[in-house]
Each structure stands twice: as structure tokens, then as C-alpha cells.
Write a structure and sequence with these properties.
This protein is of the alpha/beta class. The protein has one domain: Diaminopimelate Epimerase, Chain A, domain 1. The protein contains five helices and four strands, in the order H-E-H-E-E-H-H-H-E. The protein has a four-stranded mixed sheet with strand order 3-2-1-4, sandwiched between helices. Strand 2 and strand 3 form a beta hairpin. The longest helix has 19 residues. The N and C termini lie close together (about 10 Å).
Length: about 140
């Protein structure tokens, strides 16, 4: 079910949003989608964050967008580096914005706008480092069971 939520065009638009957001930053953004989330969504996001090795970025500036589509749960999780510099309610405000889009059935647009907002903050606090800056994590959407 998770892989069927987004068409191939939607997936391409989401991946392009990730690539676009990462152009101006050394930060890393990943999207993980699965059908169900047993238990607390934030706890599951932490497990996925570690499984995707997002905590291993040089500046600890990875951001995970985690969606459990059948259970209608999602979380945004930033690593310690980015969490130290964004406003206290930053992730919650992005989440609220995305939830509004999701409720209107605009899943792709909601996710893209959330990625753009995260990318803006990453760019402010972790600007692109030129030739020394490598893409540490894949931009592809990952899917779970």
C-alpha cells in the first residue's frame, strides 16, 4: 500500500524537491514511507532514522520525513545538529502545514512543501560547502513494510 500512494510522477516530484532543497545546504533530507506504524510514530521514526544511518552525517544535520499511510501517522525528525539551531516549534509548524495539505488530499504537495521548509532552514544554518560537500545519503524515497 505504501508504494502505491504516490504515482511515479509524484515520486519524481518528491525526489526533485529533496535534490532542490539540498542544493543550498550540506544537510540531508530523506523520506521513508510505510503502510503501518505500530505504537508511537515518533519512536518508529527514530528507529527508521537509525536504520537509514541518518545519524552518521558529518554535521548531524539529517532530516527524516516519516509517513505511515494506512495508519495516517507521520513525523518529522531532525538530528541533533539541526535541532540545536531551529526554533523550538519548527518541526511542529511544518507538520501542521503538511497535515492541512494531507487532509485536503494533497499528499505530494504537502510533502514537497514540508521538504522545502526544512531545506530553507538547513540552507540558513548549514550552507553548501562547495567541492567538499558530498551527498551523504540517497535522495530516493525508501519504503518499509
Amino acid at each position: 500500500m505504501a508504494e502505491k500512494l504516490f504515482s511515479s510522477a509524484d515520486r519524481e516530484a518528491i525526489i526533485n524537491a529533496i535534490k532542490s532543497a539540498e542544493v543550498a545546504t550540506s544537510g540531508e533530507i530523506q523520506v521513508h514511507i510505510e503502510s503501518k506504524c505500530k505504537g508511537d510514530v515518533l519512536e518508529r521514526a527514530v528507529v527508521v532514522f537509525e536504520k537509514l544511518k541518518m545519524h552518521q552525517t558529518k554535521d548531524r544535520n539529517g532530516v527524516l520525513f516519516y509517513l505511515a499511510v494506512a495508519d495516517k501517522k507521520f513525523a518529522i525528525l531532525g538530528d541533533s545538529g539541526i535541532n540545536q539551531v531551529v526554533p523550538e516549534n519548527f518541526w511542529e509548524s511544518i507538520k501542521e502545514h503538511m497535515a492541512g495539505k494531507f487532509k485536503a488530499g494533497q499528499f505530494t504537495q504537502g510533502l514537497i512543501e514540508g521538504i522545502q521548509q526544512a531545506g530553507d532552514q538547513l540552507g540558513k544554518h548549514f550552507p553548501y560547502q562547495g567541492d567538499d560537500d558530498i551527498n551523504e545519503l540517497p535522495d530516493e524515497i525508501s519504503f518499509g513494510s
